[in-house]
Amino acid sequence: MAAAPLYCVCRQPYDVSRFMIECDICKDWFHGSCVQVEEHHAVDIDVYHCPNCDVVHGPSQMKKRNNGHRHDYTEPDDGSKPVQAGTRVFVKELQNRTFASGEEIMMHMKGEQVTTRYLERHGFNYPIAVTEMEGLGLKLPVSTFSVKDVEQYVGGDKIIDVIDVARQADSKMKLSEFIKYYTNPHRPKVLNLISLEFSDTKMSELVEVPDVARKMSWVENYWPDDSFFPKPFVQKYCLMGVKDSYTDFHIDFGGTSVWYHVLWGEKIFYLIKPTPANLALYEAWSSSPNQSELFFGDKVDKCYKCVVPQGTTLLIPTGWIHAVLTSQDCMAFGGNFLHNLNIGMQLRCYEMERRLKTPDLFKFPYFEAICWYVAKNLLETLKELREDNCPPPTYLVEGVKALISALRTWLKREVTEPTSEVPDHIRPNHLIKELTKEIRYLEVRWDKEERIWERVRPFLHLMQVFMSALRRQRQTAKVPSNLDILEQHTREVLRRLEVGPLEEVSKVVNNQVLPDSCRERPTSPSTEEAIQGMLSMAGLLCSSKPEKVASSQEPWWSSSSQCSPLEQREEAQHQHRLQGDTSPMDSQGNSSEAWDNQGLPSPLSRSHGSSPETDYQYCDPSMSPPHPSKRHAPNPPPISNQATKGKRPKKGMATAKQRLGKILKLNRHNRVFV
């Protein structure tokens, strides 16, 4: 067996994980760490001389910079080629561009308001900016935490991926080398670090993700501890970028939602809504050969600019297309999470990544495996809700439908692409079948409920219209005055008696000769007193104030010196019932409260149970509490004007016509006008 060839000054075999560079003279390969050549510097070398050839042929020759707007800066600056993303010219032009304000789509909330319950009710479809951290559950280092502190907690030997912004290309280097570059005031190029995941380091103890991200995360809730696949760690990232760092438009891997917090410095986000049209444009733009020469923000209707200053947390929903510019040296923390609210969009983004042949480095680890775990758990959730007779939320049902379709597609793909991520303890076909049964049950149930609602909805609409009209009437209604009540009662009596206008019956009711004492004209009462007297004798008095026990001056209608003996006796009985009778029951065993409920409200019921806006409903006098001296006898026989045949009815059975005569008798010598 032939021995493996040895390379470099260290005479070691080839290691794919270590960067190596070839000498253009001797054609030998050398590890960059052995000859002090960093990977991001190697692209700037035109002709490389190894340490052995350097002695004879001199130092290596560097590339000559000819332009500042192309990824290959050696191209001639003749203005024939457009500006490419990330270059110095591009960043300067980007800062001078005008964009729609991010306030149009940004939701500003307090930390305590951003909860799982809120997002489940209102959805997670727009970015959320949080400036008051209390209640968010986010734990971070102090604002004086520096890049050297990061090196101390994570370790300088950790290999990291950095982005050369001017070339929009990534390269590997040690964290200690990046920290040395970051702290150097003279930086030959712009490097950006956005993928330092530190969950497995000591720095993880200093950071706790927001509660909403932790509680909604698929990885935290559904990934089993005994899984064959390694658990994805995507919740804790440290981002360190220097001024003018730029990340071009992208969608976070797997359509994950993301949280950012700027510890110090400032970042500017350029956000685009994930509409079907914008997603189609994004896929076409990503697959175009001249992608770096086209600014994607110019291809869509609106691109929103959102500035995220120090101390602000930003949550970006699933599928939002965004680019990021670091306007000043900045350190930020962030994380990604999959969740149940936007399952369909997450699956669409994943399939887009497959079509674009995105490298595994930039994809969500074991995305299909976690989808199988989620499907198993959601099946149990749907069964529990069905047993409890609780309908699942709409977003969950739609998400399960999208998940079923994706799982079927992946099973069919296994025939031609045997890269299965189906967990061993899951029966894929059985799981899909059970999920489909649950969805069909819900669809049948909803179809029945919809048919019922189609029948009930018109009645509910009419009821809503009626209640709205009643509410408006109550708002505009006024409490009727005593004069209004008397007028309404008199008109109703006249209508029943088929009598003409009130003025036609304003004549002398009784022509008999009265005693002199009664011929004397009583003291003219005020209008209000006259109305109250007439209402009292008609059994319609509805005072809003409780009656006084004693008064220094008696009302004019109760004066014994102005009335006949019969009326005095009736009035005495009336006063006896009002003041002396302690029983609330009448001769028929009916309480006064029953009368109040049937007819006009009593003063007591008004003061305790009725609002001033209560509408006055006219009630026939036969349903109103009669005058105390004219209460009905127990179980009276039915009586009408025709039944009496012109005879005087028994006491307590006065007809409506006689009641009207009682009202008109108040002033025998003058006309009565209402």
UniProtKB/TrEMBL annotation:
Q: Name one GO molecular function term.
A: zinc ion binding
Q: Which region ranges are annotated with the description Disordered?
A: 61-82, 553-656
The cross-references to SMART domains, in alphabetical order and at most eight, read:
JmjC, PHD
Q: Which InterPro entries does the annotation name?
A: JHD, JHDM1_Histone_Demethylase, JmjC_dom, Zinc_finger_PHD-type_CS, Znf_FYVE_PHD, Znf_PHD, Znf_PHD-finger
The record places domain PHD-type at 5-56
Biased segments, Basic and acidic residues type: 69-80
Domain of life of the source:
Eukaryota
| Compartments where found | Nucleus
- Cofactor(s) needed by this chain: Fe(2+)
Fetch the SUPFAM superfamilies from UniProt: Clavaminate synthase-like (SSF51197), FYVE/PHD zinc finger (SSF57903)
> In what ranges is there compositional bias, type Polar residues?
580-595, 604-614
Q: Return the GO cellular component terms, semicolon-separated.
A: nucleus
Q: Which UniProt keywords apply?
A: Chromatin regulator, Dioxygenase, Iron, Metal-binding, Neurogenesis, Nucleus, Oxidoreductase, Transcription, Transcription regulation, Zinc, Zinc-finger
> Which residue ranges does the record assign to the JmjC domain?
198-354
Q: By its UniProt entry, which Pfam families does this protein fall under?
A: JHD, JmjC, PHD
Location (main, coarse): nucleus
One GO process term, biological-process aspect: brain development
Q: Where is the composition biased (Low complexity)?
A: 553-565
PANTHER family named in the record = PHD/F-BOX CONTAINING PROTEIN (PTHR23123)
Family affiliation: Belongs to the JHDM1 histone demethylase family. JHDM1D subfamily.
Q: What is this protein called?
A: Lysine demethylase 7A
Tell me the organism: Sander lucioperca
Q: What is the lineage of its organism?
A: Eukaryota, Metazoa, Chordata, Craniata, Vertebrata
Quote the gene name from the UniProt entry.
kdm7aa
